[in-house]
Amino acid sequence: MKHNLDIVDELYATLNTLQPLEPEDKSRLDKKFRLEFNYNSNHIEGNTLTYGETELLLLFDDTIGNHSMREYEETKAHDIAFRFVEELAKDIERPLTEQIIKNLNEVILVRPYWKDALTPDGQNTRREIKVGNYKEYPNSVRLQNGEIFEYASPVETPILMQELINWFRDEEHALHPVTLATILHYKFVRIHPFDDGNGRLSRLLMNYVLLKNNYPPVIIKSSDKNNYLRALHLADIGDYGPLINYVAEQVVWSLKTAIKAARGESLEDEDDFVKEIELIKRKASSKNIPKSPGIVYNTFKLIDTKLWNTVLNTLTYFDTLFNETKNIHSVNNLDEQFETRYVSNFELKGILGRTEISDEPKKTKIFGHDVYTWDIYTISWEHIMYALQGAETPIDLRIRLEANFNNHNYTIQLKIYSSIIYETVKAYKDVFLATEIDEITHALKKHLIEFIKEKVN
Prior knowledge:
Layout: H1 4-17, H2 23-44, H3 51-60, H4 69-90, H5 98-109, E1 113-118, E2 124-129, E3 141-142, E4 148-149, H6 157-171, H7 177-191, H8 198-212, H9 225-236, H10 241-262, H11 293-319, E5 322-331, E6 334-335, H12 345-349, E7 365-366, E8 369-370, E9 378-388, E10 397-405, E11 409-416, E12 419-427, H13 434-456
Antiparallel strand pairs: 1-2, 3-4, 5-6, 5-9, 7-8, 9-10, 10-11, 11-12
Helix pairs in contact: 1-10, 2-3, 2-4, 2-10, 4-5, 4-8, 5-8, 6-7, 7-8, 7-10, 9-10, 11-13
């Protein structure tokens, strides 16, 4: 079995044969890595912006959701720092220095602020975070088991940082770039030289090494945080192998993604049907648009055209596995009402005069229920597939999309029978981003394939 570093070398050689990339492919790839790195590196450290919100902020300078101003600022600052690292890596004559690292910390933290901390004896306190300066107080952390994990002391930090820079310069051309990047990342984390931002900065430094050696940036996925931390903990006891292998595995993903771009292929992860579902839970706020009949109707049209139609298009691939299908709609748990139009016998048979046609103005209705007559609090769309082919006994499937309307927001649930496979809370002013719709269809595909395989086998 090949070691991940061997796979890295093979893919790196393949990527080099495909250089240079076409401008449009390079643009696609740069955008992919930019969003993936900013979202995941921030999310690991507790930033609550979703992937879609990160995309909206960085590409369109727009925001949605209820997040603190600091989270928006730090996301944009992290992006600036990543761009700075990209430019720094291109300057092969410029060495890495302590001052550059301090400048990066100042960029990602934006400005001084107060944060919860621990005293030397393990008591909770609050401390002002001074950006761009080495720590003045211990920045120990409490582990899940209650133990206090000690990083370098404030007195040791300047000495250890100078030693780190010297080590890097000595090993820069001796170690494999992935090994060099990984150990630099770990040594920096182990010192934890700043009051805050050390995790993000360690990953920026890791990518500085890779980019300087013409590798694509490595993305540590927030969804894989536990494995990442476990590899770091093993390094704490002197075993660097798992961490180097882990980072190499992530570099393999980056190289494969870059090769896809170079070949003009889609950058979507085809096998990733369970890409982390971003549950957006926004608390109702007086600043949000309140519920009204017109708002409910407009939201219904948005869900019906943007979301439910996409779900139906996805389900057409599965419909052929069943004998027949049916769609059902309801409002306030009441079935859809179909209007009866009175027409003339002449229209039907061409022999008699008109009997009755209402002149009543057209109403704004949702599945036959007028929004100005009914207080609509829930709408459901249901697709039923009858009799799965190849199953030993007749098996039906029910896919249900449900929208519940609250005073200042609405909830969306997609279910297979009673099992929820996607759920989100949105303000009435929010729209569905393409990334959200992709998440829904990926989750739906995965669950349906698993269900059908189990029943047919």
